[in-house]
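I am going through a labmate's work and have reached the protein record below. What it holds is a sequence and that sequence's fold in token form. Please read both lines and tell me whether the tokens look consistent with the sequence. Do not assume that whoever made the record got everything right. Thanks in advance; the entry in question is below.
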Amino acid sequence: MKTKKQYLYGMAAVAAAICLALASCGKDEPKPTPPEPPLPPDPPAPAAITAHLTAQTDDDQWTWGDLDNVGVYMFDLGTLNVTGESGNVGYKVAAGKGAQALAPIEGQGAIMFPLDERLKVEFMAYMPYQAGLADLDWQVPVDVKDQSSQRSLNLMWAGKIDNDGKGYTRQQGETPVPLKLQQQMSFWQVTVVKGEAGPNLNGLLVSIPALPTHSNFDVRTGTMAEGTEMLPIAPLTLQAPNNALGTSGIYGATLIPQNISANQNMVQLTTSDGTVFSEKLIASGNALEKGKLYEYTITLYRDKAVISNATIKDWTEFSGALGGDAY
């Protein structure tokens, strides 16, 4: 039987347990962790910006035609590293004189500036456009044996278009990038006139004795390899002679720049009766220089040819017969 003392101890223990329970219940429950706020939406991706390009020459006197297609490269500034997919993209030049806009040829997309505005680029261009240039180790083949389509022989080049070293970025926006193409070939033009008692010019045959007819042009450096395949060249008849009307004959040829021997005949004229006239037409400094137009007038008499009006000038525009449809 419990004693009174034991009973009191028991009651005290129960009371203490109740107090502890009550104290525990009185404490605050831990607060739940609030959810993380939602992340802000990603900023919109920058819009792609097309590079607006124009073809032009230094003095803007060149007249572009329907057959003028340009190959364009975009490089990382100061390198030959093609930016993205912007290697040898074909563009068509709008017909007209002076600076003209370029549009991608069918099946090719326009060149776009890098999305990162910190990335700077430069451009290089050449004409006529050559598909598959990567497979040719950057070499544009040049062949002047066939003079029937002068446009296809008209090699021009614009190297390192880099905004005076500052490069271009997407901030260029719609401001055109000027691709200033420079002539890399020589043009030879001869006007043949009938002199007093001279031969009939109807049926006149004109040729340039053996000259190099093939070369390669490196679009990375803008250099032409030494010409090969020495063959006669038949120039294009820009204006046929007509004895009855007293019309002179005009003949033109696009030629590979080259050194000319002092003894090199540069024209051979064969009349309908078989008479042959050969003339040297010595070029300036014994060379055919790129970007130069060589014009000569030859008057044929019964037994001699007289050269006059020899002119060598920059080939910067179409003039005279060069403006015709044949060109």
Observations:
- The chain is about 10% helix and 40% strand.
- The chain has two domains: 53-183, 186-317.
- Confidence is low (pLDDT under 50) at residues 319-327.
- The domain at 186-317 is CATH 2.60.40.2630 (Immunoglobulin-like).
